[in-house]
Design a protein that fits this description.
With 150 residues, the protein is mainly α. It has one domain. It is built from three helices and no strands. This is DUF2721 domain-containing protein.
Length: 150
């Protein structure tokens, strides 16, 4: 097994696209973690308010925050799985080329699984955004004074 410099260059060329995809997934993870942090901060504020005044009713908003945090956690898990699978694709590309083992089907399967994980992450993020927007609209509508009847 004699690896030439040109072979290594070819391997690196093969792995460039998945590396860019990995960069995008890492950026998306940053966004998801940021959203989760904001949800956690808001939950803590409401729980502190409840401790100071148990008569206040924040149960509906807390329930919405809990649902949102679960969806973001699913999205983070899916994005992390996607990143892991992309790393495996890159490693298998190198391994397959260096050892001349026919791993093309395994690489393709891992890439498809990575894409399914990414899709799952986007779907969960979108669901979380829809819940947040709906709750915000409902709170805005509830805080508006009723329009007088004519």
């Amino acid at each position: 097994m004699n690896i030439q410099t040109s072979d290594i260059g070819h391997i690196i060329q093969l792995s460039i696209a998945p590396v860019f995809l990995l960069t995008g997934v890492a950026t998306k993870l940053g966004v998801l973690i940021n959203r989760l942090g904001r949800i956690i901060d808001r939950t803590r504020v409401l729980e502190d308010r409840l401790r100071l005044n148990p008569d206040d009713d924040y149960s509906e908003e807390l329930e919405v925050l809990y649902r949102r945090s679960h969806l973001i956690n699913y999205a983070i898990t899916s994005s992390t799985a996607c990143g892991f699978l992309i790393c495996l694709v890159i490693a298998l590309l190198f391994f397959s080329d260096v050892t001349d083992m026919p791993l093309h089907q395994v690489i393709a399967a891992f890439f498809v699984l990575a894409m399914l994980s990414l899709i799952s992450s986007f779907v969960n993020l979108l669901r979380e955004i829809f819940i947040a927007a709906r709750h915000m609209r409902e709170r805005h509508t509830a805080s508006q004074p009723p329009t007088p009847a004519r």
